[in-house]
Amino acid sequence: MAEEIAVEASMQSALNELEIQRKKISELKTKAYLFLAAGAIIIAIGVFMSSLLIAAAIIGGASIITSVVFFSNAGQKFTEYRHEFKQRVVAIALKSVDPSLEIEYKYGLPEDDFINSQLFTQQPDRYSSQDQIYGNAGKTCFSFSEVHAEYKTETQTKNGRQEHWHTILKGIVFCADFNKHFNGITVVKPKDMGSTLGAWISDKMPIFSSSSKELVKLENPEFNKAFITHSTDQVEARYILTPTMMERLCELNNQSNATISVSFIGTYVYIAFPLEKDYFEPPVFKSLLTTESLNEDLNVIRFMYGIINELDLNTRIWGKE
What is the pLDDT confidence band of residue 203, given thresholds at 50, 70 and 90? Predict the structure, then answer.
């Protein structure tokens, strides 16, 4: 109880101090937007009233330059504010879930690890990851990071080549020690038209399949309705995806906003959660003291932490060989 009170007092103190920084940044950004809008309006008036064009250009230009200065100051202060928020507020929130949890907000899942997880067949042309949170839940070490991975396509237009960027994943990739060395690679992906067609070709016309993985036919109807499973080791895939594990993955999937992807590689289980918003970011135009955004962050942390129990990874069914 004393520890909880100390954590709560420490959190409140950090929020109160950061709220002062937030208000200053909010004021600077508001002024920047106002000067930018005023400059644009003044220049537009000058364009319509040619006799005032030079004066409007000078005054409007000065207003826009002033807005740039305010934006620059706000940007510098936001960098400090964001650093303090992650190091103090998010760090305290993590400790309230489990003392072992830490955050390295400048780092995330390395691109090579993302590719090697084989959660997605498309390799990224543009990749970023941050906010790596790691620690232990019982006997099991785990981590998760925000990831934004995209691939590029190009089309030829009359004005030249045009680039198009497509999202592979915007969300969180969770990784945990499965306490078993996998001999093969097993991947569980959302069931959609493309994956269904690919699975049909792999099953009926394996000669046309370029993948070394084979379709794994499982007996859980709910699981098969949501996912398609491929593996390089049919026996091991069935050994991993027990009826209980499939039920747990279905339950985890039901708690998510979009269908998850899962892979079992090396000694790890990887899970990709598509998400629409960035977490662990401090608000600028909303008060920190309402704790609305912080509660959303805490819910994500608790959800990720709870996966270890959801999948029962602390029960050492297997030992590492």
Answer: low
Considering the domain architecture, whether residues 56 and 151 belong to the same structural domain is answered as no
Q: How many Å apart are CA 214 and CA 184, to the nearest integer?
A: 11
Number of separate domains in the chain: 2
Q: Which of 56, 2, 9, 66 is nearest to 34 (CA)?
A: 66
**Domain shared by 119 and 80, yes or no:** no
Q: Do 74 and 207 sit in the same domain of this protein?
A: no
Residue 10 maps to a domain: yes
Which among 97, 125, 144 is the end of a domain?
Answer: 97
Range of the domain at 67: 1-97
Residue 284: partners with Cβ closer than 8 Å, 6 or more residues away: 22, 25, 26, 29, 78
Average pLDDT over residues 116-139: 94
pTM of the model: 0.82
pLDDT digits (tens, 9 = 90+) for 113-124: 999 999 998 999
Question: Mapped to the 3 state alphabet, what secondary structure does 235-295 carry?
Answer: HHHHHHCCHHHHHHHHHHHHCCCCCCEEEEECCEEEEEEECCCCCCCCCCCCCHHHCHHHH
* Amino acid identity for residue 137 in this structure: A
